[in-house]
Amino acid sequence: QAKLVESGGGSVQSGGSLRLSCVASGYNKGRYCMAWFRQAPGKEREEVARIDSVGFRGYADSMKGRVTVSLDNAKNTLYLQMSSLKPEDTAIYYCAREADACSSLREVDFGYWGQGTQVTVSS
């Protein structure tokens, strides 16, 4: 029943920055894990970052040091701040959620997904 809506994607030049947002609605109060994934044409979907209700935060090596994941609980909004963007960061970025701690979840366990937002980084 949870609904996730991403926004904030766009086109930027190499070295630029973007902040993606994901607004969650229709969820049950309690524990959760929310994560960002991305998928480029011809490639498998990969995780970028995750954050949960017990304070865990994790980042994939592909973007570690260039991204920060955060959550504004008052606005029920997940964010992904990205900087020093590279052409290889070009992909559709997805928000996902599951009612469990991040430590218990793999990609296939996430039950709710947004529609995605396109990020294009030009050289």
Provide a count of the helices.
0
Strand content: over 45%
Large-scale geometry: globular
Low-confidence stretches: none
Q: Compute the average pLDDT.
A: 95
N- to C-terminal distance: 40 Å
What is the topology?
Blueprint: E1 3-7, E2 10-13, E3 18-25, E4 33-39, E5 46-52, E6 57-59, E7 67-72, E8 77-82, E9 91-98, E10 112-113, E11 117-122
Parallel strand pairs: 2-11
Antiparallel strand pairs: 1-3, 3-8, 4-5, 4-9, 5-6, 7-8, 9-10, 9-11
Overall description:
The protein has strands at residues 3-7, 10-13, 18-25, 33-39, 46-52, 57-59, 67-72, 77-82, 91-98, 112-113, 117-122. The strands form two sheets. Strands 2, 4, 5, 6, 9, 10 and 11 form a seven-stranded mixed sheet that branches. A four-stranded antiparallel sheet has the order 1-3-8-7, with no helix packed on it. With 123 residues, the protein is mainly beta. 0% of the residues lie in helices and 50% in strands. It has no helices and eleven strands. The chain is globular. A hairpin with a 6-residue loop joins strand 4 (33-39) and strand 5.
